[in-house]
Prior knowledge:
The structure holds 2 protein chains of 2 kinds.
Chain A: E1 3-8, H1 9-20, E2 24-27, H2 34-45, E3 52-55, H3 59-72, E4 76-78, H4 82-87, H5 89-97, E5 103-108, H6 122-126, E6 133-136, H7 140-154, E7 163-168, E8 176-181, H8 184-191, H9 218-247, E9 254-257, E10 264-267, H10 272-285, E11 290-295, E12 297-299, H11 303-310, E13 315-320, H12 330-340, E14 347-352, H13 362-378, E15 385-387
Parallel strand pairs in A: 2-3, 2-4, 5-7, 6-7, 10-11, 10-13, 13-14, 14-15
Antiparallel strand pairs in A: 1-8, 6-12, 9-11
Helix pairs in contact in A: 1-2, 1-7, 3-5, 7-9, 10-13, 11-12
Chain B: E1 32-36, H1 46-50, E2 56-59, E3 62-66, H2 76-80, E4 90-94
Antiparallel strand pairs in B: 1-4, 2-3
Amino acid sequence: MAKVVAVTGNEAVANALRQVNPDVCGIYPITPQTDMMQRYASFISNGKVDTEAILVESEHSSMSACIGASAAGGRVVTATSSQGLALMWEMLHIASGDRLPIIMPVVNRALSAPLNIHGDHSDAMGARDTGWIQIWSENAQEAYDNTVQSFRVGEHMDIRLPVMVCLDGFIISHSIERMEYLEDAEVKKFVGEFKNLFPLLDLDKPKSYGPLILTDLYHEYKRAQHEVMTKVKDVVLDVAKDFEKLSGRKYGLFETYRLEDAEIALVILNSAAGTSKDVVDEFRNKGIKAGLLKPRLFRPFPYEEVAEALGNTKAVCVMDRADSFGGYGPLFMEVSSALYHLKERPLLINKIYGLGGRDYMPSHAELVLNELAEIAKSGKIRTYKEYIGVRE
Amino acid sequence: MKPKGWKDLTPGAVVLEGGSACNFKTGSWRAFRPVWIEENCIQCMWCWLYCPDMAIKVKDGKRAEFNYDFCKGCGICALECPGKKGKKAIEMIEEGK
């Protein structure tokens, strides 16, 4: 039986971790994630879990400790945000290169400078190429559900990769929402016993992690790493199917909202997708065929499926809560790559919104959908990339 | 032996055997060579203990000659060697001299 609760995103994810009861947790505070690991530390102190907490002096150390614990043979978690994720950067590549299924909620926050603690996607987008799986979440329920599912994905014997579960800082991490918890026993059964691949602590079979691999084999190892990523989509879908049986909640590689017959569409990640769906409804009520695509699996990116879902639209705006300065927004780059191979494809624009936690309002979605309707009619694009909700 | 292709590799480049360093002779890196002076050796085995590789051979519980295949000339053994009556049992000599 599901339990209905009113909790913050941080509390929801901390509880997902409690229900999984991992062996080791690297803990270092950083806003807006701090509250999640603080809650988890309370679970440890109160005997709710038997996780070994490693209190470290930085996020670089936290990820290093997680890598050691995971290679030793444990089920390992940590959580971070923003500068913390940035400080982990070199270790992120080592976790994925060593094929260690570490699970890490990332509470998305802007990067310095200037210093800002609020929600945007610059942190996780900066970790795009680190070889981690990335699953994004719109609200507390999705963050909770994705956290539970991420263990099955990362620990799958054909995958063995670390997973980031992304949720918006403050907007989701600190807002109280109604959501449903699964029973502890259900989660425990769903994720199953942790299975080792090459545990260092199996002393009868000595082994080494992190050897020097130069020009003779490095290229081959990276090719093999690419191959693993091509298998992730199917595993994510299989796990989602099992999860639906358990929870009644359906997940895919992305969510489509009124997209099937849509002529204009928004592509938008995480919490702002919720706001946008309301505005899509308003446009539908006015007789305008608007729709929305909300990516869930960002790494690996489901190019073919996204192209198929957007292929019949006339104009699409990809909304980015991060910027690649001097380039397009990171989500835009993926969607435009996906659409390029189509013979007939929608016109495509990129809007940058909500940086540093700037509110994303229904009026912003309205503005963009009106522009898309105009583009669909005229076939003309005024500007490809533009900041919205910005003071002149 | 045919070189390995990407499908033949162990996930995560994990080396699944112990002692695999024996397969890689690294002595050619050396710029300075340690030389053992047996008459000054008190058989304390500190050189064996401190050697970061496996360049100190032991035979019948006693220190034997260097194994130069694995000695990179770091000089730790010479530094740590207590010697006998102020005379070191290991000295570093420049290679090629």
